[in-house]
Each structure stands twice: as C-alpha cells, then as structure tokens.
Amino acid sequence: MTLSETETLSIRQMCDTYQVTARTLRFYEAKELLSPIRAGSKRLYTKQDRARLQLILRGKRFGFSLEDIRQLLDMYNRNGSNLAQLARTFDLGQDRLAQMKAQRDELSIAIAELETELQSAGAALAAFRAAAE
After folding, report:
1. How would you label 50-68 residue by residue, b for 16+ Cβ within 10 Å and e otherwise?
2. pTM
3. 3-state class of 133 per DSSP?
4. How far apart are CA 121 and CA 45, in angstroms?
5. First to last CA, the chain
6. Of 20, 71, 80, whose CA–CA distance to 50 is shortest?
7. Distance from C-alpha of 45 to C-alpha of 48, rounded to nearest angstrom
8. How far is residue 93 from each of residues 24, 37, 43, 59, 98, measured CA to CA in Å?
9. Distance CA 90, CA 78 (A)
C-alpha cells in the first residue's frame, strides 16, 4: 500500500499495515510515543505517526527500551540540526551492539556445553539400550 503524505490511517489500518495490535498502538500512545489525531472516539494516524511507529518497532527489535526510544524521538527537530539525536542514537546503538554480542557469545558457550552433554547422554542411553537387548 502506498500512502500519500496527507493520508491518515485508522487504528485498524495501522494494525494491518504494521502487523501490530490495537492494544500496542494504544500502549504507545499512553507512553507518549505516538500522538494520533482524535476524532471523537476514532484515532487517525498521520505520516509522522507512521514514521514514528516504524522507528519504535525498529528500536524494539534492536532491544532499546521504550524510554530510550521516546527520548530519541523527542530529540527530533524538524527544522534544525539533528546532531544531538544522531549522536545519542549512535551511542545507544554502540552500547546495545556490545550487549548483543556478549549475549551471543554466552549463548554460543551454552550451546556448545549442551551439545557435549547431549552427546554424553546419547552415548549412555545407547549403552543402556544395547545392554537391555
């Protein structure tokens, strides 16, 4: 679906487009990450809301906290320099990458240990089964 810059989306359309639940969108609104237009009980999402949601989802995928994401989004200056926002994003990204690599290394060690244990258990199980025959 291609959307014009002025087109707004309903909550259902946002859910379908970005594969999120209405509850998620309302949660992000409560956390001041999104600010849809209110038309009675309807929520209408603008191009800016769509861009913010894409950044929120990317930040969550990378493991950033919602508070970090909110602060980064709030640093955006439409008519000025976004150097501070870019620098903060870079610093958070570097920290998160280091954490993810450490988790990966720990997981690799755990996988190797489990494989060793399963090989030993498999050999012992085979020996028991052979003895029972």
Report:
1. bebbebbbebeeeebeeeb
2. 0.77
3. coil
4. 56
5. 64
6. 20
7. 8
8. 24, 31, 32, 9, 9
9. 19
Compute the Cα dihedral for 44, 47, 49, 54 and give only its sign.
positive
Any idea which residue has 């244990």 for tokens? 117
DSSP conformation letters of 56-124: HHHHHHTT--HHHHHHHHHT--TTS--HHHHHHHHHHHHHHHHHHHHHHHHHHHHHHHHHHHHHHHHHH
List per-residue pLDDT tens for the chain, 133 residues long: 556 656 899 999 999 999 999 999 999 999 999 999 998 989 999 999 999 999 999 999 999 999 999 999 999 877 878 899 999 999 999 999 999 999 999 999 999 999 999 999 999 999 999 998 8
In order, the DSSP letters of 5-49 are SS--EEHHHHHHHHT--HHHHHHHHHTTS--PEEETTEEEE-HHH
Torsions phi, psi for 35 (to 5 deg) = -135, 75
Q: Is the sign of the CA dihedral 76, 80, 85, 90 positive or negative?
A: positive
